[in-house]
Amino acid sequence: MPQTLLKCTRCRASYPLDMAALRCGECKSPLIVEYPLGGQARAGPQPPGWVGSPIPLPIRYPSSFVSLGEGNTPCVALSAVGEILGLAKLHAKLEFINPTGSFKDRGTAIMLSMAKELGVDEIVEDSSGNAGASIAAYAARSGIKAHIFVPASAPAAKIQQIRVYGAETHLIEGPREAASQAAEEFCSENSLVYASHNLSPYFIEGTKAFAYEVSAQFGPDLPQHMVMPVGNGSLFIGTWKGFQELQMAGRVATLPRLHPVQAEAVMPIVAACQEIDWAPGPGARTIAGGISVGDPPRKQEVLHVLRSTQGTAVAVADPAILRWQRLLAEREGVYCEPTSAAAFAGLEALMETGAIQKGDTVLIPVTGFGLKDVPPL
Predict the structure, then answer these.
(1) Each residue's pLDDT tens digit, 264-319
(2) Which CATH class is domain 75-99+203-372?
(3) Main-chain phi, psi angles of 197, to 5 degrees
């Protein structure tokens, strides 16, 4: 009988489901979950409270699910901001309503459920804040011990949130990449599972639920464009995977164009798209810390999604990000963190280039809550 497997995103080598498997043993590329019948796979057990179409997941037993009520976030029309941009059909999906205040709870719920099902009792993660807080919360929920490695420069509110859930918090000096290196070394030295939200194939299985919800909320009239802040790209890739499954199952026809937005100070995806010779300068920083990722491990997957959907990648400056954070709060009552506001700055840039037209329907995920990362306004 065909089995659900892990597949290499590059050479297509296959591996059994395993929490420790993050990269292909042959070519070192990241892995994804692949079902016997693709998007037509039997869905199996569903997450608690799930109200959308049945979603294929790697979890076999309902008792394995770890949930805090994530998902089912609302979509709201943004008429005031739409008027500023000249867009009559602009919508936001309020992902900051998830239990720990960011979209990361979607991926964490499935990743920690798999950890529970596979008998893992201690994990290591590195994060700039939101994913670390999310994993700390769900680890507490599941009784799994968590070590979270965080850049010492991360927002104090996010570090406090990680600590309050009881995770062992390791503050690492230096750039974001230093936290990843320290986490991997700690895993190796202590023979622990590296539950990396950047690399785990199960994390993407959680974020793909975003596409299923959008399909349920919009019906046959899906948004023509989705604009997302992208660092490691877990929501970007997961959304595409979800829409692919829905299309294979005959539930949707034309898919949205997906546009990634990055900050000008840290823009590896944009540079690759535009064939710019770019590398992060010494101490390169942006107010949008959630997308400050100089070398995302799934960069090739992000680029594949971008090209497959005919999207356009744009980079935006910090002043534009802060301007949009204020506009969203003052004009719509939506208080988001700077990383989320970057998507709206990106939308403005995409309209200026003509990639998005005034009559188009646009959806933006508001990925994180403003109180988690408070810059001076």
Answers:
(1) 999 999 999 999 999 877 777 899 999 999 999 999 999 999 999 999 999 999 99
(2) alpha beta
(3) -65, -20
